Amino acid sequence: MSLIKEFREFAMRGNVIDLAVGVIIGAAFGKIVSSFVGDIVMPPLGVLVGGVNFSDLAVTLKAAEGDAPAVLLAYGKFIQSIFDFVIIAFAVMMGVKAVNSLKRAPEPEAPAAPPAPSAEETLLAEIRDLLKQQKA
């Protein structure tokens, strides 16, 4: 079996198509989340924390020489990325929590009490109890 034929069979499986659709929708949803966080969540949060931005924090490993730029260890960008991730994760968690609360199934009703025994069952139970008393 040729390599091209194998690849075609692999690519045409339903799971691969589903995965491709999921990746495309995920990328589009990523843009929505980025916009939500960057345009709606971050501005008021930036006002609350006083515009904290760690991106400029760095250690110079080698100074700039001539046309060569300085070599920096930009740890501030890493700290800012972690800070942004925590904010994004919290915002997404709150959104998912809101959606889940909207689609929760109503509380199941309490199970109904078992039906009372019929007259025949009650009579048979009384006979059984009388027979037990006679044997004792």
UniProtKB/TrEMBL annotation:
Q: Which GO terms describe its cellular component?
A: plasma membrane
The membrane topology term of the UniProt record is:
Multi-pass membrane protein
Q: Which GO terms describe its molecular function?
A: mechanosensitive monoatomic ion channel activity
Keywords from the named record: Cell inner membrane, Cell membrane, Ion channel, Ion transport, Membrane, Transmembrane, Transmembrane helix, Transport
User: Pfam families this protein is in?
Assistant: MscL
Q: What family name appears in the similarity comment?
A: Belongs to the MscL family.
Subunit structure of this chain's protein: Homopentamer.
Q: What role does this protein play?
A: Channel that opens in response to stretch forces in the membrane lipid bilayer. May participate in the regulation of osmotic pressure changes within the cell.
- NCBIfam families per record: mscL (TIGR00220), PRK00567.1-4 (NF001843)
Identify the PANTHER family for this entry. LARGE-CONDUCTANCE MECHANOSENSITIVE CHANNEL, MECHANOSENSITIVE CHANNEL MSCL
Protein name, entry field = Large-conductance mechanosensitive channel
* Source organism of the structure: Amnimonas aquatica
Q: Which gene encodes it?
A: mscL
